[in-house]
Amino acid sequence: MSGQADGQAADRDDPLLRPIAPAYAAQWLKPQPPVRLHGESYYVGFEGLAVVLVRTSAGLILIDGGVPQAVRAIQASIRELGFDPKQIKYILVTEPHWDHAGGVAALARDSGATVIAVQAAVGELRAGKVGADDPQASIHEPMPGVTRIRGVRDGEQLRLGGVTITARATPGHTRGSTSWQWRSCEGKACATIVFAASINPVSDDDYRFTAHPERVALLRQGAAKLATLRCDIAIPSHPGTNDTLQHLATLERSRARNPLLDRHACRSLAATYVQRIDARLAKEKAAR
Question: How far apart are CA 52 and CA 45, in angstroms?
C-alpha cells in the first residue's frame, strides 16, 4: 500500500499528469471496461472519450491519450487486457485539443513511444496550445507539450509488426484533425476499422461559423472525406456520436455477433457530422 501511496503522491507532483479542468473533464471520464473491438484492436478509453489500442507482433499502437488525469486509467485498462503499456511504440493523435491529446506527453514519456500526427497538428502539439484561428482558441486549456513527435502527410502509412495504419486527414474541428484507418483480421474474417476524429462544429461562445465560411468548408471537407473511407467499424473520438457505447456493452456480454460491423459505418458517422454542421449554421442564422 505504501508503494501505491508513494506513486499517487508522485503523480500529484508530476507536471505531465496535472489535471486539466477537472470539473469539466469529468463528464467524459466515466469508466468503461476495456473491450476487444475486433482481432487485435481494443477499446481502452471511457464513456466520453475514445482511446484505442492495436496489438502487433512488434509492440503496441495507441490512438489518442485523453486528458492527463486519464493516463493512469488508460494504462490500467491496457494491463487488464494482459499487455504492458511500456510496449507502446507509437501514439497516434486525432487532434491537438486537450481532451484527446492532453495525456499524450505522459503516455509517451512512460513508454518511450513516438507520437505521430499530421504535419498541421505538430506545431500545436509541441506548443501545447492551439492556433489563434481555432474556433476554441479562447477557451482551449493549455496542455503538456509533446517532444518526441513525427509529422506525417495525408495518406501516409505507418507500419509496425505486420499492421499498417493510414493517416486520413479529416480537417475542420481543427486543421490537423486526422482519422486513422487499418485492417483487422480474425482468422479469415477481416474488417477495416477507422478511428474517426471529431468533425463537430464546436467553438467558444463568441465564435460564429457563419462568419467563417473557410472553416465551414473545412468541416464539410472533413465529413466528405470520412464518408468516402472504406470502413466496417467506425469508432468516433467521442463514442456517444454513434452507437459505439451500446455496441461495446453488447460485446461485453457476448461475442456471438459483432454489432460494430457495418459496411456503411463511416458514411453514417459522416452524415451525423453534416447534420450537426447544418444545425449549428441554422441556429446562428436564427439568432440574428
Answer: 7
pTM over 0.90: yes
Domain tally, the chain: 1
- The residue behind cell 509492440 is 59
Segments forming the whole domain that contains residue 230? 12-286
- Contact criterion met (CB below 8 Å) for 128 and 93: no
pLDDT (tens, 9 = 90+) of the chain, 288 residues, equals 544 544 555 677 899 999 999 999 999 999 999 999 999 999 999 999 999 999 999 999 999 999 999 999 999 999 999 999 999 999 999 999 999 999 999 999 999 999 999 999 999 999 999 999 999 999 999 999 999 999 999 999 999 999 999 999 999 999 999 999 999 999 999 999 999 999 999 999 999 999 999 999 999 999 999 999 999 999 999 999 999 999 999 999 999 999 999 999 999 999 999 999 999 999 999 987
| Domain contains 1 | no
CA dist 58 and 169 (Å) reads: 26
- Distance between CA 27 and CA 36 in Å, rounded? 24
Residue 3 lies in a domain: no
In a domain, 2, yes or no: no
Name the packing angle between helices 213-228 and 265-286 (round to 10°): 160
**Cα–Cα distance between 272 and 268 in angstroms, integer?**
6
